[in-house]
Specification:
There is one protein chain. The chain has 334 residues and is α+β, with helices and mostly antiparallel strands. Strands 11-10-9-12-13 form a 5-stranded antiparallel beta sheet. The longest helix has 21 residues. It starts with a strand and ends in a 9-residue tail after the last helix. The mean pLDDT is 95. The structure holds adenosine monophosphate. Adenosine monophosphate binds next to β6, β8, β10, β12 and β13.
């Protein structure tokens, strides 16, 4: 294989550098206004392609590229396109559909027996603080936190009027867990036949993180918001690491049962750790998450397996390299 096709945005810098360092080529594609950024850095010798329709992915496939699923790919190219395109995909192609669909995602997390927040199937059931979510990887935009079923009904009415959703089933009502958010990143390696812990991050979110800088008297009617503006490094207490690893292992096993051969490469469990030190899993992503960018200089957790720090992007490239050398590419690309 010649190299990686990477959508402009999300973790494109990390991915391009990782694949280039491992001796592959990198092709960054996207709308023209997004490509400018990648010309600015002299070390980023990626080929840039304007994307206007999926035929670009066919030509990249003909040239020997494979596609890296990212949040940008899920959001802008859509899961159904990812399932249809001819270009080989790094990881388990069908997992993007499971990630984009609340029912499938819940089924997977339940199969993995994850400790989870309660899900409310109808607005009238709501009897505690909940977070109401919109579908897709929209970066937390437009969510509502409330105890009031009335407020949820009004929120839903507004969303319908703006054509942001079509059915009530498109929204997801989840118990709001109080604690600190910790996003755990993993890499499931078919080649090494092991799960590697690659690190952790916290999402820095507006206005929820901005509001705590204000005193209650100034908050007034300002509302919580979960638009991600960046990511922060976090090093969980060492006594939590074993639990995080076991949660990752349970997710791998569940994907093996429900979507064989199971997750391949990077994935993330999004958790809230409560004051009794229990990580509660409220989301998962079956691909590289932007939170791995906190280790743009290399993850010290990956150093525990490889003796040197490396990014998740580089780790993915290494997996493809090893798979090629061992004639096992079919276990990494699908
Ligand atoms: P998500 O789109 O599910 O990743 O959620 C966006 C953000 O909302 C997260 O980064 C958390 O800050 C917050 N959040 C989501 N679900 C919960 C929950 N069940 N309890 C507490 N906070 C949550």
């Amino acid at each position: 294989m010649r190299g990686a096709a990477i959508y402009a945005g999300h973790s494109a810098i990390q991915l391009s550098l990782g694949f280039l360092e491992e001796g592959f080529e990198a092709a960054i594609f996207g709308p023209p206004e997004r490509l400018k950024l990648y010309e600015r850095f002299p070390t980023l010798k990626a080929r840039l392609h304007q994307y206007s329709d999926p035929s670009l992915l066919d030509s990249l496939a003909d040239e020997g590229y494979f596609l890296i699923p990212t949040g940008g790919v899920v959001e802008y190219l859509t899961p159904s396109l990812v399932e249809r395109v001819r270009i080989p995909v790094f990881g388990l192609r069908h997992l993007v559909r499971w990630e984009a669909d609340w029912s499938l995602k819940t089924r997977l997390l339940e199969e993995a027996r994850m400790p989870m927040p309660r899900r409310f199937r109808s607005i009238s059931e709501v009897d505690r603080l909940v977070i109401a979510k919109l579908p897709g990887a929209k970066g937390g935009r437009g969510y509502l936190v409330t105890r009031s079923p009335e407020e949820i009904k009004n929120w839903l009415k507004n969303l319908r009027e703006q054509n942001l959703i079509t059915r009530e089933d498109d929204i997801f009502l989840q118990e709001y867990i109080v604690g600190t958010t910790i996003y755990a990143h993993y890499f499931q390696s078919p080649i090494m036949d092991r799960l590697e812990l690659t690190g952790f991050d916290i999402r820095y979110e507006s206005n929820v993180d901005g509001l705590r800088r204000l005193s209650p008297r100034n908050i007034g009617d300002l509302k919580e918001g979960f638009v991600v503006t960046g990511n922060l490094q976090v090093y969980p207490r060492e006594r939590l690491l074993e639990e995080f690893i076991e949660l990752g292992e349970k997710l791998v096993e569940a994907t093996r049962r429900l979507i064989p051969p199971g997750v391949i490469g990077p994935f993330c469990l999004e958790t809230v750790v409560t004051e009794d030190l229990k990580p509660i899993v409220f989301e998962f992503s079956g691909r590289i998450v932007a939170g791995t960018n906190v280790y743009l200089g290399g993850s010290p957790y990956l150093a525990l397996y490889w003796g040197r720090e490396m990014t998740v992007g580089r780790r993915m490239a290494l997996e493809v390299r090893m798979a090629m050398e061992q004639g096992r590419l079919g276990e990494v690309l699908t």
